[in-house]
Amino acid sequence: MENSKEKVFDYNELVITTGATPFIPDIKGINSKNVYTVTKPYIAKDLKENINKYKNIAIVGGGFIGVEVAEQLSKYDHLNINLYHSRDYLLNGVYDKKAGEAAKKEIERHGINIHFSERLENVVSENEVVKEIITTNRKDKIDALILAIGVRPNTQIFNNGRLKKIKNGAIVIDKYGRTNIENVWSVGDCATVPHKFLKDAYIPLGTSANKIGRQIGINLSRSKDNLFASYESLGSNSVKVGDLEFGTTGLTESQAKDLGYYYGIAESEVLNKPSYMPDSYKLNFRIIYEKNSYKILGARVFGKKDAVLRLLPFTTAIHSGLTTKDLSYYDYAYSPPFSLSWEAVNIASSVAK
Length: 353
Fold this sequence. Notes:
Layout: E1 14-16, E2 20-22, E3 35-36, H1 41-50, E4 56-60, H2 64-73, E5 80-85, H3 97-109, E6 113-116, E7 120-126, E8 129-135, E9 139-141, E10 144-147, E11 151-153, E12 184-186, E13 193-195, E14 199-201, H4 206-220, E15 237-241, E16 244-250, H5 253-258, E17 263-271, E18 282-290, E19 296-303, H6 312-320, H7 324-329, H8 344-350
Parallel strand pairs: 1-12, 3-10, 4-5, 4-10, 5-6
Antiparallel strand pairs: 2-11, 7-8, 8-9, 13-14, 15-16, 16-19, 17-18, 18-19
């Protein structure tokens, strides 16, 4: 679309990569000039250029973007930052309550005020500037509003019913990256990803977009009887909140329950290296496994130093069908500056043995 005129193009192969758009509630005044979504570099740049004009910042949303933005803005000493979250703990979409509580303590340590069970209901604006926000139980004066309440697949233009989509509008692709229409492919935040357990899942992460994008590129150069399909998502992700690292891979407890698994949970706290070494900290593990076979279904870890790197063996284990018994005795490298003689992954896995 250019200058409001439609153009028609022929194609041999079409790859749809329209991405996602931030969710913006249908509230009068929400498009004011001091309202930001922080989903594009130019928006973050605009916020940064105006930051010294603001004192009271409201962030709506306690997921990845909201938490990360709050922590970064805490570096500005003149700001009073309030984060409003509709649920009862942070990062609830992916992480368990213990991890969410740890994130809360860490972000509060940076001077952020957090308000739970608060959903944005309205704003008061004047001359295209939001002056006040109204949430479930609060009414606060603000200088700037940051919306971090999720994204939606940008697929509204494909509205003739031909493309198969899931409920939120994401285009369904197969393991090769193909849609249900011949010679049409899709990848990125506008599409689903093939998940090992959840099948057609909407997981808008850069890891999936990069891998499936490469896979489609390979397949476009191959014959249709020799397509490449190596990628299978586990929804692996990580986030840094202050000095804490958080990572998760595979199924969460609620997903394992919904899928009907007979599962167990192994929780533990293990040092990342000997206590006599500098930067020795506890890592908190949570492993979800099948009770009968001990196969690992999912894992979560958080801690201060090298926590996310401890997640990697669990991702490999899930892809390979390994058990907690396997990881309990695998021979990981040992040296006091880096690990215990029994690596933290060994110890955490042995809890479920």
